[in-house]
Design goal:
Jelly Rolls; transcription; 13% helix
């Protein structure tokens, strides 16, 4: 589950603000339980536990079902990520370029793999040759197990501009047949043929439907990713503030006419768990791959 810092996420924050409800989550992390079992474990009445269960269910943290006369509760999520508003760097001028996920300029992929637009799948799944059909340009979700996708954008800086930072943001997850919330994948990023480092995606998420994922797309397939932001600065490269590598902005040739960004799952990765990229019509974030230049 992904949350923003806004009022729509308040039911989740309120549900977590209780010692009893945290204990219920701990119990359900081990097994499904009915209300009476939870009440016994916590030494509380079934009526009190029922109220706490309702709070957690409203927040979509747990799900319940009727089995005979019993109400069985289980966890619906295994992680919650909170996206804070991005800092704004007012000191510099900026240039933004948005690249749809189907607009890659080079690729090499292995199954499981596939593409889909906002209306339907593009060709049969697990057929890498369909990654070159013209219809790929309309893709809003792309996935593969091993290989890479490479994107290019124009360098619109003038010769008198001084590049201070590059920010690249995108929604991404692992790739598993159907979905698996616990499926780590080591995904490597490169920029203009310089390797920036690798980040481990924790899983391929389908615990809740993506906010923008179209209704025709099946519930049991990957629904959303995590919004990740890579920043190349004068101090090195980080991803969401966490160190990625020592590669810094002065290592780039700013006279180049294009920027190249590659996303890759290597053959020798420790966790070969694939990669899924979400465009603005899929997942939880209404954006394509964004490359933002900060300059003076």
């Amino acid at each position: 589950m992904q949350l923003e810092i806004n009022t729509s996420a308040l039911p989740v924050y309120e549900a977590l603000a209780s010692n009893v409800r945290l204990q219920i989550i701990q119990l359900l992390s081990n097994e499904k339980m009915n209300v009476k079992e939870i009440a016994t474990a916590l030494n509380l009445s079934s009526a009190i536990i029922t109220q706490h269960i309702k709070k957690l269910e409203t927040a979509h943290i747990i799900k319940t079902e009727r089995v005979g006369h019993q109400k069985i509760a289980r966890l619906a999520v295994d992680r919650i990520e909170i996206n804070f508003p991005h800092k704004i760097f007012n000191a510099y001028s900026t240039i933004e370029t948005f690249i749809p996920v189907g607009h890659y300029t080079d690729y090499k992929v292995e199954p499981t793999c596939g593409l889909a637009s906002g209306e339907d799948f593009i060709g049969p799944v697990d057929e890498p040759r369909f990654f070159m059909v013209p219809e790929r340009m309309s893709a809003q979700i792309v996935w593969f197990t091993k290989g890479f996708l490479e994107y290019q954008s124009p360098n619109l800086l003038k010769s008198t501009d001084t590049l201070k930072m590059i920010e690249i943001s995108f929604e991404i997850s692992s790739e598993f047949p159907f979905a698996n919330n616990n499926w780590p994948s080591d995904i490597t990023f490169s920029f203009n043929d310089h390797e920036l480092g690798a980040w481990t995606s924790p899983g391929d998420f389908a615990d809740t439907r993506g906010k923008y994922t179209p209704q025709w797309y099946p519930d049991n397939l990957n629904q959303y990713g995590l919004l990740k932001t890579i920043r190349i600065t004068e101090h090195g490269t980080n991803i969401d503030g966490d160190f990625l590598s020592t590669f810094n902005i002065s290592d780039l040739d700013t006279s180049t006419t294009t920027w190249k960004f590659r996303i890759e799952v290597k053959d020798n990765a420790e966790n070969i768990g694939g990669c899924t990229l979400f465009g603005r019509e899929f997942g939880n974030h209404n954006q394509d791959i964004k490359i933002k230049l900060f300059y003076s």
